[in-house]
TrEMBL record:
Domain ABC transporter: 2-245
Keywords for the protein's UniProt record, in alphabetical order: ATP-binding, Cell membrane, Membrane, Nucleotide-binding, Translocase, Transport
Record keyword Transmembrane helix present: no
Recorded family membership: Belongs to the ABC transporter superfamily.
GO molecular function: ATP binding
Keyword Transferase: no
Protein name (database record): Phosphonate transport system ATP-binding protein
Length: 270
């Protein structure tokens, strides 16, 4: 169980996240939705401890994540793997080496510095790439790939960390609809077949409803909804995204993934 217990993060006088409280069972597929600036990314980065809470606690099983330091903190960041919108690959390295960097916390320091990996580790990386349908690009430089391929490389790298949780910070925001579907299908497969908890920030409401068994809605740093997709009615959506007077961009209008695997242009209600 991941427990967010009264977590607040302030930047100066502004609270990017305010008194957030939520409990997420192991194996959940959670979509975090809200307008830009709602606090979604800050919440995920606090879970991973890329930034520290100003107040409150983050607990996972018997561990108080907010108290971790040094080696224990590095271990936690390996268990709570981050996937970013901009992929964060090393462009000059080949795909296989990028994936193998997911093992850095599992190998001695000298091996991490020299990028020395065993045959077993290389096989593990190739299997992850094969699972994601991109084994054929293993020896290509990362910067020769499409955006969708690069995001799948980032997912493969996360898998090599042997995570308990995958935190996906807007993983499809910079992708076209077809690649967005491939990436979301991959995250759902990992969730369902590996039992890994997936928490993903998503701009598109339809995508969250289609892929996630639980949705957390944020507005102005506060969690204003926590429930199933079926419980997310029009009144709650208006609370999350704003009033009917909002502009089209603020209403999160985008091409989205709908049931049946089809793609459709849909405007999220405001």
């Amino acid at each position: 169980m991941l427990i967010i217990d009264g977590v607040t993060r302030r930047f100066g006088e502004k609270a990017a996240v305010a008194n957030a409280r939520v409990e997420i069972p192991v194996g959940s597929m959670v979509g975090v939705i809200g307008r830009s600036g709602a606090g979604k990314s800050t919440l995920l980065r606090m879970i991973n401890r890329l930034i520290d809470p100003t107040e409150g606690r983050i607990l996972f099983e018997d561990t108080d994540v907010t108290r971790l330091r040094g080696r224990e903190l590095r271990n936690w960041r390996s268990r709570a793997a981050m996937i970013f919108q901009q992929f964060n690959l090393v462009n000059r390295l080949d795909v296989l080496t990028n994936v193998l960097t997911g093992r850095l916390n599992h190998v001695p320091l000298w091996r991490s510095l020299t990028k020395t990996y065993t045959d077993a580790e290389r096989t593990l990386a190739l299997r992850a790439l094969e699972r994601l349908g991109i084994a054929e690009v293993a020896l290509q430089r990362a910067d020769t790939l499409s955006g969708g391929q690069q995001q799948r490389v980032a997912i493969a790298r996360a898998l090599l960390q042997e995570p308990r949780i995958i935190l996906a910070d807007e993983p499809i925001a910079s992708l076209d609809p077809l690649n967005a579907k491939v990436v979301m299908d991959a995250l759902r497969d990992i969730n369902q077949h590996d039992g890994i908890t997936v928490i993903s920030n998503l701009h598109t409401l339809d995508t969250a409803r289609h892929y996630c068994n639980r949705i957390v809605g944020m507005a102005n740093g506060h969690i204003v909804f926590d429930g199933t997709p079926d419980e997310l009615d029009d009144a709650v959506v208006r609370q999350i995204y704003g009033t009917e007077g909002a502009t089209l961009d603020e209403r999160i209008t985008s091409t989205s993934i709908v049931p049946g695997g089809k793609l459709a242009t849909a405007a999220t209600p405001a």
